[in-house]
Structure formats: structure tokens, C-alpha cells
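User: Could you go from structure to sequence for me? I need the amino acid at each position, not a summary. C-alpha cells:
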């Protein structure tokens, strides 16, 4: 039971990092394109990192599911947008 939360936190960190990378790589707009990139990147990278990060197989199966990842990406982006001040960089 104690391994559940650390595993989920590691997965959330990976997904959050890939969201930032997609945001930087693709620039403003293109939300669905960024989401698709993050989902594809997580599905490609997470199984290979599982052993190194000590993530159990069940968590890999759950968090490489496209539906679960879609909800997770949307949720993390919504929380980040709500928590971070929006700045108008173009003046």
C-alpha cells in the first residue's frame, strides 16, 4: 500500500515534465496537438522507466491508457492554469 503514492507521484512528475516540454516545443495554442504529444511521449517512455523508478506493472498499465492520460493531462493543465498568474507578454 505504501508503494502506491510514491509511484503515482513519480508518474505525475513525468507527465508534468512532458507537459512543460510540449508547451515549450509547440508554443501557444495547439492544445489538442500538445495533449496528443504528451500522451504519446508518456506511452513511449513510461514502460522503459518503470524498472528504474520502481513503478509497479499495474501502474504502468493504468497510466499508459489513453483515456486515463487524457484526463490526467487535462487536469494538470487546468490546475496549472488556475494556480499560475496569466501574464500578457506581448505589449
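Assistant: Here is the amino acid at each position, in order:
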Amino acid at each position: 500500500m505504501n508503494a502506491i503514492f510514491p509511484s503515482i507521484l513519480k508518474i505525475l512528475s513525468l507527465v508534468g515534465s512532458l507537459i512543460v516540454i510540449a508547451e515549450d516545443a509547440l508554443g501557444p495554442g495547439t492544445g489538442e496537438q500538445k495533449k496528443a504529444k504528451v500522451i504519446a511521449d508518456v506511452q513511449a517512455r513510461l514502460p522503459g522507466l518503470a524498472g528504474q523508478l520502481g513503478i509497479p506493472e499495474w501502474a504502468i498499465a493504468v497510466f499508459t491508457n489513453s483515456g486515463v492520460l487524457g484526463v490526467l493531462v487535462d487536469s494538470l493543465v487546468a490546475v496549472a492554469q488556475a494556480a499560475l498568474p496569466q501574464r500578457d507578454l506581448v505589449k
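One structural detail worth keeping in mind: Residues 18 and 89 are 23 Å apart (CA to CA).
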